[in-house]
Amino acid sequence: MAIALPAIVTNITVPLLGLVDTAIVGHMGSAAYIGAIAVGSMIFNLLYWLFGFLRMGTSGMTAQARGRRDLSEAASILARSMKVALVVAALILLLQWPVREGMLWLIGPTDDVRPLATTYFNIVVWGAPAMLCLYALSGWFIGMQNTRIPMFVSIMQNVVNILASLMFVYGFGMKVEGVALGTVIAQYAGFLIAIWFLWRYYRKLFKIHTKGQTLCVNLFSTNRDIFLRTLCLVAVNLYFTSAGARQGATILAVNTLLMQLYLLFSYVMDGFAFAGEALGGRYWGAKDMEAYKDVVRRLFGWGAMMTILFTAIYVVGGTPFLRLLTDEPQVVEASQTYVWWAYLIPAAGVAAFIWDGLFIGTTKTRGMLISSATATLLFFVTATVTMNLMGNHGLWLSMILYLATRGGIQTFLAKK
Q1: If DSSP codes are grouped into helix, strand and coil, which group holds residue 29?
Q2: pLDDT (tens digit per residue) in 118-162
Q3: DSSP assignment of 296-353, as one string?
Q4: Which residues 6+ apart lie within 8 Å of 335 measured at CB?
Q5: N or C, which end of the chain has less CB nearby within 10 Å?
């Protein structure tokens, strides 16, 4: 719990920030603003998820190095990850025009949403160096069993983001560009705070233990399964957003609001998954299998309690919560038809979230890839068939089956 609780606080600030951004644009007088934030945010989520190994791989490898008491390797892992993060960020900035146009073509937003999403992208893309470096730093801190630093960084970053967005939108009269500027400013603020913590508490470790590393090839090689698995997640989320966008701005806005409920649960469960990464990787590296099995049992005990709690919260307060996010009548009315799908999210997704953390910590990433690839195939087959018959209900059915399939396959593989 010493690891999980700060991680939960860290993660819960992320969807809360998304809720604030959605609430700000949700009162601008048009559903197109909500859709623009949804499309713009999805583009960057897809981009950054592709390089999620900068956090996940760094966390698992660092935790195992700590379990082996190999501090030299732990320091070198961060150095390699930071180098890769900067190279990737430079490529994103250089290729921002084709990336933006390609993503917008794939998502296919309506004519009223597209120019607003373009404005959002053109501003937020300049935060790529800070965000990718933060991925590497956060993964390393988690692997070192220190989730308090990412918590402090995330809290400060989100405070800056909220204040800056409110200032630009309500103080200077900006629209989507105000929310985008607040995001970029907060990303660099978070990066600078993380660097300060690294220097404050770990500078001696790097002075003494860092090995000379000039190539980052090993990092890519070690994390190829994570990269491919992330491609599956990207494909599902890209299709989910684009399928909503093709149904019009109102359905896109409804799906965006319901996905906030999904994110709330996922980020809470990721707090326990981070504990699985840190402790599971540590005990796996130390070859202490009894302690590792105990971590697994405790994580699933907490997962069961969180599933019951969140299901009850969504059933009782789901609709009033959605009304807080927007006062657009057509969006509020349409959300009533689909909100019950959110009730199924906790039970469908809990196993996948927990196993992801444990598989990352032990670097048994092939299992993650197998489960994600199979679930992705099922998602596309189900969506293709059911959307013609059920419309947006078919899209949500496909998402629920996707989550449940990932967790079911990982449970089978973990037992083996």
Answers
A1: coil
A2: 999 999 999 999 999 999 999 999 999 888 999 999 889 888 988
A3: HHHHHHHHHHHHHHHHHHHHHHHHHHHHHH---HHHHHHHHHHTHHHHTHHHHHHHHH
A4: 254, 257, 258, 319, 322
A5: C
Burial class (CB in 10 A: 0-12, 13-18, 19+), 204: exposed
Low-confidence spans in the chain with pLDDT less than 70: 14-19, 27-30, 207-222, 326-327
Instruction: Provide the 10 A C-beta neighbour count for residue 79.
Output: 16
Q: Which pTM value belongs to this model?
A: 0.78
- In angstroms, the CA 308 to CA 264 distance is 14
pLDDT, one tens digit per residue, over 275-310 is 999 899 899 888 889 999 999 999 999 999 999 999
Half-sphere CA count of 344, side-chain side, radius 13 A = 15
The type of residue at 127 is: G
Structure tokens at 47: 């981009």
DSSP characters over 151-195 = HHHHHHHHHHHHHHHHIIIIIS---HHHHHHHHHHHHHHHHHHHH
